[in-house]
Amino acid sequence: MATVTPRTLSGFMELLPAEQLKFERMLALLRETYSSYGFTPLDTPVIESAEVLLAKGGGETEKQVYRFMKGDNDLALRFDLTVPLAKYVAAHYAELSFPFRRYQIGKVYRGERAQRGRFREFYQADIDIIGDGKLDVLNEAEIPAIICDTFTRLGVKRFQIRVNNRKLLNGFYAMNGMSEKAAEIMRTVDKLDKIGAEAVRQCLINDVKMLPCKAENVMDFMAVKGTNDEVIAALERYRGMDATFDEGLDELKTVVRYLADFGVAEENFAVDLTIARGLDYYTGTVYETLMLDHPEIGSVCSGGRYDDLAGYYTDRRLPGVGISIGLTRFFYILSEQGLLSDEGGASPCDALILPMTEELSPAIAAAAALRKAGLRVQLYTEKKKFKAKMSYADRLGVPYVVFLGEDELAEGVLSIKDMRSGEQRKLTADETAALLRADAAGRAAATLIKE
Amino acid sequence: MATVTPRTLSGFMELLPAEQLKFERMLALLRETYSSYGFTPLDTPVIESAEVLLAKGGGETEKQVYRFMKGDNDLALRFDLTVPLAKYVAAHYAELSFPFRRYQIGKVYRGERAQRGRFREFYQADIDIIGDGKLDVLNEAEIPAIICDTFTRLGVKRFQIRVNNRKLLNGFYAMNGMSEKAAEIMRTVDKLDKIGAEAVRQCLINDVKMLPCKAENVMDFMAVKGTNDEVIAALERYRGMDATFDEGLDELKTVVRYLADFGVAEENFAVDLTIARGLDYYTGTVYETLMLDHPEIGSVCSGGRYDDLAGYYTDRRLPGVGISIGLTRFFYILSEQGLLSDEGGASPCDALILPMTEELSPAIAAAAALRKAGLRVQLYTEKKKFKAKMSYADRLGVPYVVFLGEDELAEGVLSIKDMRSGEQRKLTADETAALLRADAAGRAAATLIKE
Description:
The first copy, chain A, is an alpha+beta fold. Helix content of chain A is 40%, strand content 20%. Chain A is built from 17 helices and 16 strands.
């Protein structure tokens, strides 16, 4: 007798098979892309000592953390993949080689108020490059290539990586004597997209209490737009007034300079001086990524350069650069908006084999042979009517059904039906394998996201 | 200033990069093998409502569970992948097609006393086939094929899948009037490997309080060994005395009959009447898998047929068959015993590109081109002396280093050094790609486990 209602907690994503197959495809594609740049996979515990995980402490994060006692141990679930990385690098410093390049794709936990599209358990996909003491700006130049490869492979056509450099901002505020108000100014400028330039100018004057001429300077600076060459030319006009600014400009020029060599098209890249990101953390290049036809999604891949990864755990200076994708939310939105293609592989197999005879050996052997040929093949196991078997194949969304009845056995062939076109033909085992392989390759080539 | 010592909790596995790469290879191989049989991936939350997760309640498990409150919610971390599967199938029954074949590879949590080789967070890799009301025995016959494929692909040469059928045991105990003592007898017989036949016989007489002749019957039955044909012939002598026994024998004969068609060699399979497994749960075929050269590891893949997956959540009868590998412990032991090969891919990339000129464009473009050719290529980014660069390549364990200096640029070639042989030569970009691809394919073909 059933005694408990089976339910999944709100804020926790649990997908049906066809959607899960798409999610797995996304995971596989990310692993492949990150590996192609020499990032090594990392897997850290979901549970850490609360003292270690909350070393930084304070803020919204701490309130959201899942924290609990087990025996005498004060434990917490990781709320991001950055703190575990800092712990890992500090703890295993002597055993690692730097630059240390790792990717980690894993679940993190935040007990936020549950609401549509907000998750308490969600995947993050992070890559980071950590230096020992120093880290060349070339690493910052490589990041756009990785973002570009990732979204191109996912099938996103119109996307733009928006880049800024915190040294440009800090230098600009310093040269204008606004350093003290920098954080406040940046928070205000961040509203540009939402409230528009005029409202931001008014906020700067009325709320941040800036002189109108200084507010004007900020608005002029943030309005610098255009091709990469145009933006850099405009920024060159500020050169010589602040050492930090000049450093930031040189770094930006390095990032822009190698874009083409890295294979990043100019249309996928833009300097955007309004981007700031995590105010206390980032110190150099910062990145956001927008799907241009879906700006309402916001940035789908963000990050930047930081100078002190693990200050709470070690006195060593460990600078790095990293980016992160909030996969669960990204997938949820893509799915909601109908942007996920069914073509690529919403089927758990390439073919379903239906035995049509009492003696099952030929069907079993045929399935085994097709698997040996590299195919994903499910053997239908139940004794049901033909119609029920076909209906199962249909609901599973399998591309092909292979029949093996007395006729086929006598002729030494397989009957194979394309479930999409309805076309059915008789083929030898080798021909069947070739057909299925070609079809599987075609589906593998289809992108996950269709815009 | 560092304020907290970075540490990982005891009982939580955290691997260094070279080992993690091997673990990831194992994960990838399992996903591939399970997919090739048409299993669909599943991912359920790590956190569930305690009421749902502990519906069955009681026993050792409940004591080990990580359970805690968050706000008003009584939560728990999953301690296996079977209960979440039961919940999933019961909750999504109407949206699933049966037989429902899923695999799940994920972390589970048990707050056991930490000791060497015991983990509090560990991966399980499960496959299950769930029927709606009924499930054909053919599914039980397919399981050995999947186990066989899995361990063969992992590189284990001498392994044996040991199979029994609970109906044979239950029937045998019934025909001997021992049903009431069945559980106690099975627990005693389970010690055969450890304490030997004579001690088991004495236990049956002295502890289980059996008549010597009845204990003899048990010992005779458990001693049935030999080829599949011999075992079945021996079991046929018991036919006709108990309906359950006869059913079990027919099922066993079906499993054995199709082994060859499924591609399972007789040497990888043995009927073993001493195997019982989970006393209240399994109802038909049960499986254990031994690495014959490492029997001390115990069963590395176990499971069986059950008749009631989700009785706590639904009144529907959902029979199934499944197997599970405790991946973290399995990997730990393989690693401890030096059974993991370095050949397959302990390197995060196929080649490390070392730019040797001030201008980095050619090296960056060369790396991008090799990636386009499907290779995993890391660009070395730091300004260091040549010796430091080579030492980095060495510590990373990369198979090839590619140099690009003035000479190479002038000649339009790349210098490529095999880090294993020390051999260095100049090749065109296409030749380099071909060489790296051949080498990567060779490493991919090497098995993870070397016996």
